[in-house]
Amino acid sequence: MEPIIEIKNLTKQYENGRGIKNINLEISEGDIFGFLGPNGAGKTTAMKLMTGLIRPDYGDVKIFGHSITEDYERAMAKVGCLIEIAEAYSYLSAFDNLKQLARFYPDVDYQRIDEVLELTGMSKYKHEKPKKFSLGMKQRLGLAAAILSRPKVVILDEPLNGLDVEGMIDIRKLIQKLADEEKTTFFISSHLIHDVELTCNRIGVIYNGEILNVESTKTILRNYATLENYFVSEVERNGRLSSSVG
Amino acid sequence: MAVFQAALVNELEKLYKKKKALAAFLLSLAVIVIGQIIIVGVRSGFGLRTAGSMEFPMLVLSVVVNTILPLFTALVTIDSFSGEFAHNNMRITLTRPVSRLKIFAAKIAAISLFILATLLLLLIFSIIAGFVFNTNSATLDSLVRTVFSYIVSLFPMVVLALGIVLLTNLLKSGISVFFVSILIFLGLKVLGVFFSQYSSILMTTQLDWYNLFLMKSFPLAKIIRQFLIMLGSSVMLFTAGFYLFDKKEL
Amino acid sequence: MKLTKKTTMVLSFTLGAMLLATTALADIAAKSGYDQLKDALKVTAAQCSNNLSSFTMDISYNVKDNGKTLSSMNQTEKCDRTKSAREETTSEQTISGNNYSNQTYFDKTTYIRLSNDDPTYYVTEYTQERKDMAFSDPFKNNNADDVEKIADAIVGNLKDNVVVTENPDGSKVLSGSLSEVQIPSLINALASFEMKQRFNGQDGQQDNVPHLSKDVFVKTIDGTAKVNKDGVMESILGSAVVSGKDEQGTVHDITIEVLAKLTDVNSTVVTKPDLSGKKVVKNVVKNENSVPEISNPQEFMGKFKNDILIMKDGKFVKVGERIIEITQIDQTSATGRYYEVYKPGFDQYATTKRDFSFNATKSKDKNSPEYKFRTDAGINKAFFLDEHSGKIYLNESTTFSEGGIILDSTFSPDFE
After folding, report:
1. Chain C contact for B150, CB < 8 A?
2. Predicted pLDDT of residue C287
3. Assigned domain for C199 exists
4. Average pLDDT, stretch B87-101?
């Protein structure tokens, strides 16, 4: 089966030495892919590259076979995303913010806007301006924006940031629901191991800008007691490897 | 094209909702009111005609193209670029299925429409004010020329906006863009005085190009040359601005 | 063919740059009518001052109110560079209705003036030859460049209003016309204000002069210049119409026309006026700057006086004399005495009678005829020698008159 997201030799180095090196990944339909790694490992860089916010030094990302660098519009046609902190125009109401985005998709109408506001629990703040929103509310609005166009692929960077426990549960349910009902593929980054374990069915570990391993959650949990153990062992194995090389 | 339209509608909606455009419109009306008061004052105080009904719109235009219009253009342009970069708002549109070229073009189109709207507003109200308060001096010819002068003033203003767009993509903070723009504006004005033979390539002199349309002998060759100069600079500024905008990492 | 983004960008930038560069060059190369006008003026001025051996320049202006002449002036200037001589005839009808005319003649050693109200020829002869009196090029002036820049800036966008029509023989007609809409409002307002002041019905203007009080504005400005095939301007005509209403609401169109013509190139003859049998007043000076310089202060040795007058019963009455007696004088200093003598019977006016000696030093400025001194009472005073009229002017710090005495600071030589 054709992979939905295909990342090839993706490299982006910043002047401070951080960045990502030679990342190769394939995400298939129905995956809820967890991108796991500590702060500064390169998760956000990878996701910004995937959504075209920054340009790679080498390599490319293809979504549904369309290159992000060359055919951005088609590549992003069925993608919804939320990168870093959810941003919204502070002078437009929640509804108007979504209305702005809806214009880019011919089949998204006002009813759909109400629907996603309902899904993310933002209905009652529909006509309020994000100026007064808490971080959690902004995050919910960002998620609403990400799923607005009924995307086939949703790329979420730390989606649970700033959410309370209730919010986390809501969002996790929402992800599950979309994956089940609409066969939406997810690419979620997080530094919260527990959260990734609960949400995702495939996990990639990124460390120091490099992918260490990609494995299905089931396989991992068969071999390790917890995801945390797996993560630690992967990092250590890699550390030994690189130190033995060095 | 549908995507570009969506982007353009978005930009216009933002302009409208931010009340900046409204403020600009109100200020424009204030200019007309103040101008008219001064004229009535000079007329009754000194017995000068100052401006007939058709000269009043031209007087207003000659003042605004060198003052508030470039100012509004700068403010709106800086807000649309620097402002959105600073608030990370640019990301909202940039992760949608729309190419950066279309967003860039939509922003510039929205700014141009804003300038055009301001010009038309000034035109309509100054014509009305001119007819109500001033000695009637209108002829069909002068009316047509007046309308033309206002509309053609859009071109140099767009060139100016493109120049500022380039600056917003070069400099980080909107405030520095604003001050650099003002310095360059004044600098070009001074250059225009000292090197008047080369002044046709300076943006600040181009702002007054509507005068060419007022002449009895319609200087077609000069108008075409001036238009091509503006077109050339627009293409260059647009490309340079877009190059930077496209490279921008957010 | 699909162009990559980069190629497209480079291509469009280059195209824009080329478009800009070529049209900008074309634009700079295409001289506006205004530039051609400036060139013609420069060429004409240079030709007149350097190349043409002689020419006649006619300058005239007239001001009309609804077609009726209010004032006019005609000036004919004949220049002969070979003889370095110039002759000017001016006749003028002023706005207050007076007529003037005068005639002047210059050459290196002579200046002759005759005006209509006096049949006397005033002749000044210079012992030193003066510099070329024919015509000097105004564009060679030190400030000409700056003035040109300022003019360019003021003209600004109006530059393109000058239209050039070229004739088959190589001559050109430059013309321009501005109506109210095209005249910048500020210039219009200032010009209108100036005109309104001119025609305000005051300053003893006659009844035939309209009094503009309302709705004053510059209606049109027109100009035409003819340039011959050598680039010399043969004529230039400028006219402006200022419109306004008087108190009765009558509209007045004031037309101002200025015409300058260059004729009789290389065939103008300048003739020195024939003074034989005419009434002549002659004056000889070293050069045109020589008036204030005192060549020989010794001329002023001796007594100078004036009359002390009072006003009594509507008549001037002499009550005494003021006397300056210079006992020693040279280029650096002067000594002498000032005193007043009152006639018998007028002693009551002598209360302010003054009498003092002075020791004056001449001002450092070589050309200044000023001698400064300090009185015993500590007051700074000065006197000036006027060689031209043979008088001494006493500069006193007090200017008020006491006891009805009329002040007079001019002293004439006393030959009694």
Report:
1. no
2. 60
3. yes
4. 88
CB C257 within 8 A of CB C237: yes
8 Å CB contact of B236 and C17 = yes
The stretch A56-63 carries a mean pLDDT of 92
CB contact under 8 A, C27 and B226: yes
Residues C141 and C14 in one domain: yes
Which residues have CB under 8 Å from A59's CB, separation 6+? Answer: A7, A8, A9, A10, A11, A22, A23
Q: Do A104 and B91 touch (CB under 8 A)?
A: no
pLDDT of residue A113: 94
Distance from CA of B106 to the nearest CA of A (A): 13
Q: Establish if C189 belongs to a structural domain.
A: yes
Across the interface, whether the CB atoms of A104 and B247 are under 8 A apart is answered: no
Residues C401 and C332 in one domain: yes
Q: pTM of the full predicted structure?
A: 0.78
| Chains contacting A (3 or more CB pairs within 8 Å) | B
For residue C279, is it within any domain? no
Structure tokens at A160: 């649970």
State whether C218 and C117 are in the same domain: yes
Q: What does the alpha-carbon distance between residue B108 and residue B113 come to, in Å, rounded to a whole number?
A: 9
What pLDDT shows up at residue A246? 36
Q: Which two tokens stand for residue A200?
A: 């995702």
Angle between helices B154-170 and B174-194 (to 10 degrees): 130
* Greater pLDDT, B18 or B113: B113
For residue B47, the chain C residues in CB contact (below 8 A) are 196, 212-216, 244
Q: What is the pLDDT of residue C292?
A: 47
- The model's pLDDT over C170-224, given as tens digits with 9 standing for 90+, comes to 888 988 888 877 777 777 778 888 877 777 766 555 566 778 877 788 888 899 9
What pLDDT score was predicted for residue C294?
A: 62
In C, minimum Cα distance to B142 occurs at C181
Nearest CB neighbour to A91, from listed B18, B91, B247: B18
C285 domain-assigned: no
Answer yes or no: do C178 and C118 share one domain. yes
Total tally of structural domains belonging to chain C = 2
Nearest CB partner across the interface for A54, out of B96, B99, B249:
B249
Q: Are residues C77 and C156 in the same domain?
A: yes
Domain count, chain B: 1
Measure C145 CA to nearest chain B CA, in Å.
Answer: 11
Q: Verify that C58 and C179 share a domain, yes or no.
A: yes
**Contact across the interface for B235 and C12, Cβ inside 8 Å:** yes
CA C58 to chain CA mean position, Å? 18
Instruction: Encode pLDDT of A99-131 as tens digits.
Output: 999 999 988 999 999 999 999 989 999 999 998
Q: Give the model confidence (pLDDT) of C65-120 as tens digits.
A: 888 888 899 999 888 888 788 888 999 888 777 888 888 888 888 888 888 777 78
ipTM: 0.89
Closest CA in chain A for residue B4:
A104
| C61–chain B Cβ distance below 8 A for any pair | no
- Alpha-carbon distance A44 to nearest alpha carbon in chain B (angstroms): 11
Amino acid occupying residue A195: D
How does the average pLDDT of chain B come out, rounded? 88
Of B76-80, B92-96, C36-40, C345-349, which gets the smallest average pLDDT? C345-349
Closest CA to A182 of A115, A122, A137: A115
Tokens 């917003």: give the residue. Answer: B168
Q: How many CB pairs under 8 A join B and C?
A: 143
By the 8 A CB rule, do B138 and B131 touch? yes
Condensed to tens digits (0 to 9), the pLDDT of residues C355-381 reads: 888 888 887 766 677 888 887 777 788
**8 A C-beta contact, residue C34 and residue C159:** yes
C211 and C63 assigned to the same domain: yes
| C 115-174 near B (Cβ less than 8 A) | 149, 152-153, 156-161, 163
Q: Do A76 and B97 touch (CB under 8 A)?
A: yes
The answer to whether B18 contacts A79, with C-beta atoms less than 8 Å apart, is no
Nearest-CA distance from C135 to chain B in Å? Answer: 30
What span, in angstroms and rounded, lies between the C-alpha atoms of B34 and B40?
Answer: 10
Residue numbers of the domain that contains B176: 2-247
Range of the domain at C25: 5-263
DSSP state of A246: -
Per the structure block, which two tokens stand in for A65?
């076979």
Angle between helices A165-182 and A135-147 (to 10 degrees): 0
